[in-house]
Amino acid sequence: MTARQTPSPGVEPERGLVLAVLPRSADAEDELGELRELARTAGVEPVAELVQQRANPDPRTYIGKGKLDELKQAYEEAQAEVLLVDDELEPAQQRSLENALTARVVDRTQLILDIFAQHATSAEGKLQVELAQLEYNLPRMRGMWQHLERLGGGTGALGAGVGTRGPGESQLETDRRIARRKISLLRRRLKEVGKHRTTRRKERAGSGTPTVALAGYTNVGKSTLLNALTGAEVSVENRLFETLDPTTRGFEHDGKRYLVTDTVGFIRRLPTQLVEGFASTLEETLVADLVLHVLDASEPDERLEEMIDAVDNVLHEIGADDVPVELVLNKIDRVDPLGRRRLSNRFPGSLQISAETGEGLRALQERIAELFADRFEDVRLLLPYEEGAKLAELYALGAPVDERKDTEAGVLVRARLPQREVRRFASYLVAEAGNDAERGAV
After folding, report:
1. pLDDT value, residue 196
2. What is the distance between the alpha carbons of residues 186 and 236, in angstroms, rounded to a whole number?
3. How far is Cα 246 from Cα 264, in angstroms, rounded to an integer?
4. pLDDT at position 388, please?
5. CB of 324 within 8 A of CB of 375?
């Protein structure tokens, strides 16, 4: 089972006890801060915490025997309804804790999957979440059928004894087969959706329009920035993982068009199932011409380092190391003048903006335009009327057309062509002025 969904207004959130095994050098307050945020996003209020400091978790029970007794008492005293563990538990560890407490145990991965399940809205997002949940649950199915396995009995050459085949181990195997088939089916469906996404990417690439991906820690204001830059209306509620599905919108600056894509937020230790399950979503970062790494400038220095590392690790994991990255410090309206100077010294050349108030947005658009300055070339084309297909090709490219006039010799067009497409229209190029062919338009 997972944590309950975010409660409706007026409904009491679930009471959770937070458990973690941390090395002695770790700061428990900092380490557990993110799990508390995840819990609240999932509709659970952390009412108590228990930390054991040791090099590695116990392979069977996660925490030591003495700490397990302490956990039972703390869980009862806190009147908790669910145990939240700041780790991905092995199936045996999860069963041991559930048996010891006679309560639900939700590990970090399960909690994040639950949040993703609540927030996925597109068909693709829902498929990705379902795939990740099935892959997570498959090795944990044994515990669900423990009570039936005991009915299997015999261990002879044929396995279970006569009259006992069916409800025990065979039911478990049946469920596993169903789960594996469904995983294969979901992978095929996602592959089909991925083909459609690839087609759309090729169309965008064919237009030569620069693409910018917003990457960053969850809840740093990427969606607010997308809305501010492009006039989109993406949800910007103050919740972790508010945006799961990539949203692409465009904006124009000095007559040139740019595409901006908002992607899923990153966190420390993003579960492997999610990195794999959301591969097609994260690929929007991989195929971008530029990544804007958005940081929350109001966070403490140590937290900023954690956020940068988390994003860099995921970008490396999906193979996006080679994509140019521009660091953007958002929420600067929450930083005092001294803090702004410190940030300038720490991140020289990085733009300081506020997507909320609009501060620095013009400078950000100009920076993006500078980075793509050599992408377009201003041209004048004279396209004969009998070659109307060429005019259709020009519009199909999505190139900005600033001027169009009908002349005696053909259609005179002033446009911004992607550099790589100029050669394709070379025979139709005309000089800026004085060409006999265009005098009919003057």
Report:
1. 63
2. 29
3. 7
4. 82
5. no
**pLDDT score of 156:** 41
- Diameter of the chain measured on Cα atoms: 99
Q: What is the pLDDT of residues 182-197, one digit of tens each?
A: 888 888 887 777 666 6
User: Which sign, positive or negative, has the C-alpha torsion 321, 322, 328, 330?
Assistant: negative
pLDDT at 68: 94
Looking at residue 5, what is its pLDDT?
A: 44
Residues 6+ apart with CB under 8 A from 397: 206, 207, 208, 417, 418, 421
Three-state SS letters, 283-302: HHHHCCCEEEEEEECCCCHH
In the predicted model, residues of the chain with pLDDT beneath 70 are: 1-11, 142-170, 194-208, 234-246, 272-284, 286, 398-400, 432-442
* Contact by Cβ (8 Å): 244, 121: yes
Burial of 375-396, coded b for 16+ CB within 10 Å and e otherwise, reads: bbeebbbbbeeeeeebbeebee
Neighbours of 195 (CB within 10 A): 11
Strand-strand pairing, 44-53 and 14-22: parallel
- Find all residues with CB under 8 Å of 395, minimum gap 6, and list them: 401
Q: Which pLDDT score is estimated for 149?
A: 42
Report yes or no: 267 and 37 within 8 Å, Cβ to Cβ: no
pTM over 0.85: no
Contacts of 421 (CB under 8 A, 6+ apart): 208, 397, 399
